[in-house]
Amino acid sequence: MTDGADTAAPDCRTVLERLHAHYGPLHWWPAETAFEVMVGAVLTQNTAWSNVERALAALREADALTPAGMAALEPEELAERIRPSGYYNVKAGRLRHLLAFLERTGGIEALSALETGALREALLEVKGIGPETADDIVLYAFHRPVFVVDAYTRRLFERLGRPHARDGYETLRASVEAELGADTVAFNELHALIVEHGKQRCRPRPLCDGCPLGDRCYGVVTG
DNA sequence: ATCCAGTTGA
DNA sequence: TCAACCGGAT
Asked: In this protein, which residues make up the domain named HhH-GPD (predicted)?
């Protein structure tokens, strides 16, 4: 951490440019299909991605990375396959809710016809899909312009002294979307870069040496 | 505020 | 060895 930023909190474009210059383009989401994005979004809830990859590999082995393939698994086997991603009983139930939702609504093709707002609201009806998971899906599976807020975003924005960092999910999301405009590509990269930055440097115990935002940062906020 | 849980790297 | 992990439901 630094001794404190000597200017106002950086805007989202600046954060995006700095992180991009440092980490390079990340081209998210690492998945082959929209369904895979959905499954990964559920499995990565409060869970390291490396553990999610093991679960996804186990599902792929069982040809369960399609709605029909996953629906063919017994609930016990589904839970067992995703075990490495943690919370496996809870998440198995959430994936089954997701499958039921896709069947009820006519699948991914049908959902693609919905307006972005309606698509988001529909996803939020699913048990186990909260704001972040819904927005992961809307942005990375359907390529719609919504910004995904997560714990890394809050932590970084707080340390940068940005407004709304401690506000509710919708407030923070709306503030970023208003700042950047409806820019799917920018939302995609900014969220991905914030996650990468959060993993590599901007941790709970930050590793500030060589941070690309070091000169604009107040460091760990205690209050 | 608590529970859900296996895995890993500082 | 243990905090932390791309949260959400109750």
From this structure: 43-200
